[in-house]
Automatic annotation (TrEMBL):
Transmembrane segments: 20-38
Ligase as UniProt keyword: no
InterPro entries: MetalloPept_cat_dom_sf (IPR024079), MtfA_fam (IPR010384), MtfA_N (IPR042252)
Name this protein carries in UniProt: Zinc-dependent peptidase
Cross-referenced SUPFAM superfamilies: Metalloproteases ('zincins'), catalytic domain
Keywords per UniProt: Membrane, Transmembrane, Transmembrane helix
Keyword Transmembrane helix: yes
Recorded GO MF terms: aminopeptidase activity; metallopeptidase activity
GO cellular component, one term: cytosol
Amino acid sequence: MRGIPWGSILASPLPPPSVLLLILTVLVLAVLVGRPLWVARQRRRLRAQPLPPFWLRILQRRVPLVARLPAPLQATLHARMRVFLADKAFIGCRGLEVTEEMRVTVAALACLPILGRDDSDYDRVRQILLYPDAFVVRLRHQDRAGVVSDGEEARAGESWHEGQVVLSWADTLDSAAVPDDGYNVVIHEFAHQLDDAHGLSVDLEAPPSGHDWAAVLGEAYHRLVDAADRDAATLLDPYGATDPCEFFAVASEAFFEQAAQLAEGEPALYAQLQRFYRLDPARWAAA
């Protein structure tokens, strides 16, 4: 077997800079084009795999909202979960050991908002940080009157712009156990991730005009703010009056958990959410 003539190769003159630049450009383009194709192929393979029976039992026990879904959407949810669990890292905090039950429960709830959309909506999400229960954060808050205050607050969840979602496992279980109260911490925090990706709550503070997304959601937001200021009863959680970002997240919780009531009480808002999520959950109960 003949050896490689390294001496001749090393002695050969280097290509001119323009050729080297061309080679580098081709390599970079190959990576940029090849990686999305590889990711798409991997995701197709994952979607085709059925969920293990153990995972299905977890869904039945922990996520009763899944039982409302028509059979085709349940199959879609399983496919979304496969991709989600392969892509995202779960990190236990404050000594929590992350179990398969935790991963499957969170994945099911997180994937509900993208049932009618695409896995790529969560490409920015990298990690899910799980605490055993509510965690305390230090914050500076400015209310609508401009008053600034410092303090600490117990949180059930947070969504970070850097691609992390922080969740309390106890609150995840509690909010999932009652599928029709309009409160679901996982849906709430992942709605924030969708908001970050698509700018959904931008301009909701502006005076409404027309009947587009910003106008409809802006009007609904201001109605909730007014009701919250008067301590009036509302379908949407008054926490949504905090700011437009929280309004979209709260409205998303109601869209998935109290769809029929939302469609009746806020038909224009429901229609806009239906258009964005590409779903009609008000029909699920009757399916």
